[in-house]
Design a protein that fits this description.
It contains 11 helices and 18 strands. The chain has 370 residues and is an alpha/beta fold. Strand 1, helix 2 and strand 2 form a beta-alpha-beta unit. The longest helix has 15 residues. It is globular, with a radius of gyration of 19 Å. The two termini are 29 Å apart. GO terms for molecular function: agmatine deiminase activity; protein-arginine deiminase activity.
């Protein structure tokens, strides 16, 4: 085989065929990537309260691993002065701050190589229900990070956000039909074709489909707000015992599917219930601080937010969870301490992140150790 043949094979082979796969979040990391919030039509009062929350998250994760924060040029000096010196601030333009969804999905190879999947991104629905326009800067983030790290980038036309998938690192992926089968994501692809592409690009062998994500989740039901792997064969699930709350039926439906499922290695899943905070709604003062633009999602007083303790980040030595509701914060903290006995659970005030439409897992992306 000559050099041309090898190059052609490399271009046509999928990551799985080349031996790459996506590790679990609870596997060791080299770093965590974040972005800096600033857009006034999503974050109230010029994003100053949100910036303080992002700094707290970055500080907590930096106890555990290197943290990179990408910043638009006009906010570089502000971010650099707010963030501790050991957190690496780099100029990385974005339309908003959801690194989980606009950033790369990292892959590793048994020979020690790092690579990434560059999904298509359309701002959670494009012109059919998307959350803002334009999203041109967000689409370039993955290419820029690949060049910074000097790693291979596998480009796919499949529209997938990082928050739409969770893997166990042993061949199993969990996602929701509400998101990946939504007509505003991949309207020309049927479920079997989406499964084939997920397996080809992430190196997984089995996909567990949950019907819906959390109630009123503006991402069209991202799984990372509802359910996540905490260990091989174990998942955490957001839960409420209040059968009058719409979330109850969603969580009960998911519980039945998870308890009946087996993973790629044939194991039955153990499901750990995390209490749902709230319900939490946007206050009048919180909504009044947001600019109203036709190209972005409005924030109205009384709107229910898709609050979830499942939206936490698993670092090397810490688990960073959102502090959202005094009635349930301590219970959720205790459950996570039991699930991660080798890590310190750090609770961060995260309502300001929730007001923007997501939470701690949504604003972070782990770079696995190779």
């Amino acid at each position: 085989m000559n050099d041309t043949d090898i190059a052609t094979e490399r271009r046509t082979a999928t990551p799985a065929e080349l031996g790459f796969s996506m590790p679990a979040e609870f596997a060791p990391h080299d770093a965590c990537w974040m972005l800096w919030p600033q857009r006034p039509d999503n974050w109230r009062y010029g994003a100053k309260p949100a910036q303080a929350a992002f700094v707290a998250v970055a500080r907590a994760i930096a106890e555990s691993e290197t943290v990179f924060v990408g910043v638009n040029d006009d906010q570089y000096e502000n971010a650099r002065n707010q963030l501790p010196s050991h957190i690496r601030v780099i100029e990385l333009s974005s339309n908003d701050a959801w690194m989980r969804d606009v950033g790369p999905t990292f892959l590793t190879h048994p020979d020690g190589r790092l690579a990434m999947v560059d999904w298509e991104f359309n701002a959670w629905g494009g012109l059919n229900g998307g959350l803002y326009f334009p999203w041109d800067k967000d689409r370039r983030i993955r290419q820029k990070i690949a060049e910074v790290l000097g790693i291979e980038r596998f480009i796919t036309p499949l529209v997938v956000e990082g928050g739409a998938i969770h893997v166990d690192g042993e061949g199993t992926l969990i996602t929701t039909e509400e998101c990946l089968l939504n007509p505003n994501r991949n309207p020309d692809l049927a479920k079997p074709e989406i499964e084939r592409l997920l397996c080809a690009y992430l190196g997984v062998e089995k996909i567990i489909w949950l019907p819906r994500g959390c109630f009123q989740d503006e991402t069209d039901g991202h799984v990372d707000n509802l359910c996540c792997f905490v260990a091989p064969g174990e998942v955490a699930l957001t839960w409420t015992d209040d059968d009058s709350d719409p979330q109850h039926a969603i969580s009960r439906e998911a519980l039945g599917i998870l308890e009946a499922a087996t993973d790629a290695r044939g194991r039955r899943l153990t499901v750990h219930k995390l209490p749902m905070p709230g319900p939490l709604t946007i206050a009048e003062t919180e909504a009044s601080g947001v600019d109203r633009l036709s190209s972005s999602r409005p924030r109205q007083p009384g709107d229910r937010m898709a609050a979830s303790y499942v939206n936490f980040y698993i670092g090397n030595s810490v688990v960073v969870m959102p502090r959202l509701d005094p009635a349930h914060d301590d219970e959720a903290h205790a459950i996570l301490e039991n699930l991660f006995p080798g890590r310190r659970v750090v609770a961060v005030d995260a309502r300001e992140i929730l007001l923007g439409g997501g939470n701690i897992h949504c604003i972070t992306q782990q770079q696995p150790r190779v």
